[in-house]
Amino acid sequence: MDELTVGKIQAFGGKVKENVEKVIIGKGDVVELVILALLCEGHVLIEDIPGVGKTVLAKSIARSLGCSFHRIQCTPDLLPSDITGTYIFNQKTADFEFRPGPIMAQIVLTDEINRTTPRTQSALLEAMQERQVTAEGETKMLPRPFMVLATQNPIEQEGTFPLPEAQLDRFLIKIKIGYPSAEDDKKLLARFRQDDPLEDLKPVVSADELMQMQAACRGVHVAADVEDYIIRLVHATREHPSLQLGASPRAMMALYHTSQVMAALRGRSFVIPDDVKYLTVCTLSHRIIPKAESSLRGNSAEQALREIIDSVSVPVESENMAR
């Protein structure tokens, strides 16, 4: 990949990030990860408490790109047709016509995804993986670009249906927004005191431009030493004594592609080990399962991954990585 293309990708990410940060304050790393997922054509799972800006973040991303946005509030009585759409009989034409559901948008916020039933979750699974939905036996293609930002609340467990491993594996990354600092809270009050800056947010790039950048990111060079490092990290999750389920080949590919995009966003045409280390936890933590006894001792998937990062030898950066 030439430096001009890298510069375009970095500039693209910078414009979107700067625009979103007019609304989202003090969470530059979170915004960067969502942009990274966009460029990877992936989906994001946000696990956090209510009120930290998950909906605002999704809307800000959609408006920055000029993309359509829909929000799905997941509840136990939500049906697959409530998401995908259904056929309605039109008395004027004496025929059935398709009424698209909220999934038919480019940016979709699925709020409290673990509150809906496995049957409805399966409809989301098809949309996320195949970029299509099936209604009354007919397949409808989803618009491009397409991204699902799903949220789940970690502190309320009653009335939830835990996401199956297959569903979790479709999310490229899992992130937490967290509380803002006291200084950021002060800026937040000043920013929202009179007007909502989200209402004034304008597109700074186009959806077509995004798809061009998505294709370009696949050209970022990954040296053999770095590829081997990714493989050793993934295999270490399958052998770690506190883990019941290690990372899958899909997880390995996710770590590979996110590292490519991170390198481009940081102005490089090649991946370095630090890119991989930075993304390992958010890319793999939701794809691995600790053993029951490890969970009882308070050992989390994130903790196991940090142990793996510390134990797996890191390749020495060299000129070969840039070739």
CATH topology of the largest domain: Rossmann fold
Structural class by helix and strand composition? alpha/beta
> Which architecture name of the largest domain does CATH use?
3-Layer(aba) Sandwich
Q: Please report the first level of CATH classification, the CATH class of the largest domain.
A: Alpha Beta
CATH homologous superfamily identity of the largest domain: P-loop containing nucleotide triphosphate hydrolases
Largest sheet properties = 5 strands, parallel
What does this entry look like structurally?
- With 323 residues, this protein is an alpha/beta fold.
- It folds into 2 domains: 27-189 and 204-217, P-loop containing nucleotide triphosphate hydrolases (Rossmann fold); 220-314, Helicase, Ruva Protein, domain 3 (Orthogonal Bundle), CATH 1.10.8.
- It is 45% helix and 15% strand.
- The chain is built from 13 helices and 11 strands.
- The protein has helices spanning 3-20, 28-39, 54-65, 80-84, 118-130, 165-168, 182-191, 207-217, 224-239, 249-265, 273-284, 292-296, 301-311, and strands spanning 44-47, 69-73, 85-90, 95-100, 107-111, 132-135, 138-141, 147-152, 173-175, 243-245, 289-290.
- Strand 6 and strand 7 (138-141) form a beta hairpin.
- Helix 10 (249-265) crosses helix 11 (273-284).
- The longest helix has 18 residues, at 3-20.
- The termini are close together.
- The mean pLDDT is 88.
